[in-house]
Amino acid sequence: GGGTRDGARGLRFTPVGPNTADKVTVPEGYAQNVVIRWGEPILRGAPAFDADRQTAGAQAGQFGYNNDFLSLLPLREHGRQVLVANHEYTDEQLMFKGYDAANPTREQVEIAWAAHGLSVVVVQEERRSGKLTPVTRHWLNRRLTATSEFRLTGPAAGSALLKTSADPTGTKVLGTLNNCAGGTTPWGTTLHGEENFNQYFANGTSATDKRYGLTTGATERKWERFDKRFDAAQEPNESHRFGWVVELDPYDPDSTPRKRTALGRFKHEAAQPRLTRDGRPVVYMGDDERFDYFYKFVSSKRMRKGGSRAARAHNLTLLDEGTLYVAKLTGDSPQDIDGTGKLPNDGEFDGSGVWIPLATGDVSHVPGMTAEEVYVFTRLAGDKVGATKMDRPEDVEPSPRTGRVYVALTNNTDRGKAGKPGADEANPRNLNKHGQILELAEHWDDPSSDGFAWRLFLVAGDPEDPATYFAGYPKEKVSPISCPDNVAFDPHGNLWISTDGAQLGSHDGLFGVATTGERRGELKQFLTVPKGAETCGPIIQDRRVIVAVQHPGEIDGATVEKPASVWPDGPGRLVRPSVVAVYRKDGRDIGV
Ligand code: FEO
Ligand code: CA
Ligand code: CA
Ligand code: CA
C-alpha cells in the first residue's frame, strides 16, 4: 500500500510479508550479499571448503557452524571492522554425507568440536555499497573451538566444584560450547553466553545435573565415546566448567578467553553490558529455559577510559568483582491474570520488581549455600530466593537513548500445564506459543538500582489475535511476529527483533519497532530467512543490517541427501549457515 514506506526514522521501508521462500527476502530497493559461510577459510593455511573432504584440521581454520551472536568492532584500517561470531552447535545430518547418528566417526566428532566455538574475522566494506567481504588471513582472525584453552576467573575459579582429573587447579578449561547470543562491552571485548551445554554431557544423574537438564544416558552426538570428560559418570565436574559467560578480547589474538564465574552459571542466552553513571559495568543476562530466571551483575569496579595497555588490563578485571542479582517481578493489576492474554482492567501488564542479591565476591546472600555454590549452581540459588519464573528469557538490550531495558521472552508452551506455574502479569498467557517483550526501567535510571518498574512492550502473535499487544499501537498497521529471540538497537533508537520459532505459517525473520514517540509499537518486518533457519545476531548500522542465518534446512528428517533447503548455493550443494549483509541499492542509510 501507499503508506507502507511510512514509519519512524530508520523504519521507512516497505515491510516484507510473511512468506516461506527458501532465501533471504529483503524489502524493495534493498540488496544483500553472503558475507561468510560455514567452512570458508579464515586462518592462514586453511583450505577452501570441500564438502567431500572435511577434516578437523581444516575446520579449525575455517568459519564455524551455526552462526548466532555477531559483534562488529571498530578497526583502524580503512573500511574494515572486526566481526566476532558465535558458533552455537552443529547439525551433523546436514554436514556429513551418509551420517550415521548411532555411530559417528572420530573424524566427524572432531570436525564438530572444531565447528563449535567462536570466530574472529576482519571484514572489508565495499566502497560504494554496504557489501561486506571477509579479509582472509588477517592477523586478528582467530578460531576458538571446543578444544581451545579457556581460563576460569572470578570468585569460583579454583573451587573444588570446578576441578577435574585433567585440571586439578579448577581454572583451565578446554573449549566453549553452545554459544548463543552475547554482548559487546564498552571497553572493546565481546561476551558470549554458553547456553545449552547440558546436551553434550552423558550420564548426568546428580540433583544439580538434573536441575541443569544434563542428558541422563548417552548424548545425541556421542562425544563421550571419544573423550571421557563428556561422561559425567567419569568426570562429574566437567559440566560445571560450561554454562558461563565467556569474555574474549578480539584485539589480542594471543589472549586466553575468560569464563567469568562472578556472572553465575546457567543456560546463558546473552550478556548485555551498560555502564552506571560512575562507570561501573552492569550486565543483564537471561537463562533460556521455561520457568527460569532473569539476572544482572553489577561490578564494583569502574571502567578506565582510553586504549592504554594499563587501562585495557584493568578493564579485563571488571567482570570478576561485584554482585550477582536475580529478578523478582510483581504485577500491579487488581484482578487475577486469567492466562488468556486479555489486558487486565488497569489496561496494562505492568508492575514493579526487585533485584535480589545472590552473592558478592566470596560472600553468599543465599541461606544454606556457599558463594561458590551460588556461582556454580546459580539456578538453585534463584529457586531458594523465590525469583520469578519467566517464559524463557532470551536476549536483552538496554536502549542507548532511554535506558529502558528490553527482554525477549521467547515462548513457554508449558505455562499453565498441569503441575506447572500458571500465568502471571509478566508472563500472562498459558501455553504461550508466541512470547512477549518486557520493558524494564531501573529506578532513577540507575543500572545498579535494587528496584525497577516494568511493563510488557509487545505481546507477540498474529495482530488479529485479541491476546496480542503492540504497546497500544493500532494492530491493523503492524506485522505478525512470533518467538522474539535476539534484540538490538539501531542508530535511531528503534528496537530490532529477530525470531526463532516460526509459529505463524511464515519463516523466521527480522523486525524493527519504534520504542518512543507516536509510532511506539509500530512493528515492521524487514526480512525473512530460508526454510528451517532462525534469524540471529542482528546488527543494525547506518548503512547495513547484518544477520546470522542459523541452521537453514534444519527440519526433522532432513539430511545432506534429502535437504529441506538449498540456501545459499542452490541444488547439489550443502546448505550452509552464513552471515548476510543487507544494504540499500541506492547507497543511502537503512530506513530513512
Ligand atoms: Fe540459543 Fe536461547 O537460543
Ligand atoms: Ca497492570
Ligand atoms: Ca537465542
Ligand atoms: Ca532461541
Q: What is the number of beta strands? A: 32
What percent of the residues sit in helical stretches (DSSP H or I)?
under 10%
Output the number of helix runs: 7
Distance between the termini: 18 Å
Overall geometry: globular
- The parts where pLDDT drops under 50 for at least 5 residues are none
| Mean residue pLDDT | 97
Number of domains: 1
Question: What small molecules accompany the polymer chains?
Answer: MU-OXO-diiron, calcium ion
Oligomer: single chain
Largest sheet: 11 strands, antiparallel
Structural class: mainly beta
The portion of residues forming beta strands comes to 25-35%
Radius of gyration: 23 Å
Pfam families: PhoX (PF05787)
Region (Disordered): 1-24
Protein name: PhoX family protein
How would you characterize the overall build of this protein?
This protein has 592 residues and is mostly beta strands. The protein has one domain (2-195, 243-584). The chain is built from 7 helices and 32 strands. Strands 13, 14, 16, 17, 18, 19, 21, 22, 23, 24 and 25 form an 11-stranded antiparallel beta sheet that branches. A hairpin with a 2-residue loop joins strand 18 and strand 19 (363-364). One calcium ion (CA) binds at residues 394, 410, 485, 500.
